[in-house]
Amino acid sequence: MELSYRQLTPQLKQQIVQAFEGGMECREIPDFLNVSKRSVARVLAEVGINTKRKNRYNLDEAYFDTIDSQKKAYLLGLMAADGCVTSTNYVVYESTELSLVKLFKAELIYTGDIRTITFPQGYAPHYRINFSSKQLATALKQYAVVVGRTESGAYYFPEAQYFSSYLLGYFDGDGCAYVNQGRSGGLVCIVGSYPWVKALSNYLDMGKVVQHQSESVYYWRIYSQEHIQQFYNWVYQIPGLGLDYKKAKIEQILRSYRRG
Question: What residues in the chain have per-residue pLDDT under 50?
């Protein structure tokens, strides 16, 4: 049952404003947030938003029509890990890494704002860009960036010449590197649906697939020096692409083998 204005929390009111300013049409917000049409109109009026205005932002809506560069492949990997595209063509990219959101904004030539989402109890803030674009949403959906892809197992791998950059983007979104304490070596892992991590294991011909305790997602894991070195060589081919601290963490793992 849709919520009336009286039932709206301050957080939900903020989400209504963010949805509108991110490009969602007023008629789409009630279904998206399960609120009444009147409550949407009242919230937007309270903050002085003119719902009739057009061109709230500009962006390159054709950006993902074709994956024809390493940077596009990298950003597609980020979207596959941390992005969302709804059935109403609402596109969201959210990350704890402000640098990644800024990169996304710059590449899409997006003139809207980056949103900062804060959480209680000292959790790290998230940063988000969001907008409504049928063309961008349609392109991303053909690359399996769809709602419920973890449950459905939908995934997409780009052409071989762009796969390493795509994988780096996915790793920067949903991957980790851990250094063993008190001994050499470490662990590199990526989380995803079972079909995705299994396909990755087959594609790279390495890695172990392990079920997460939540049972809905799986890990792709590598432990050996040989495999971690191969992964490092594979994904860090393009200078300046990728999160420096994750690259440094893998380098730390590899140095520990040499010391050991």
Answer: 54
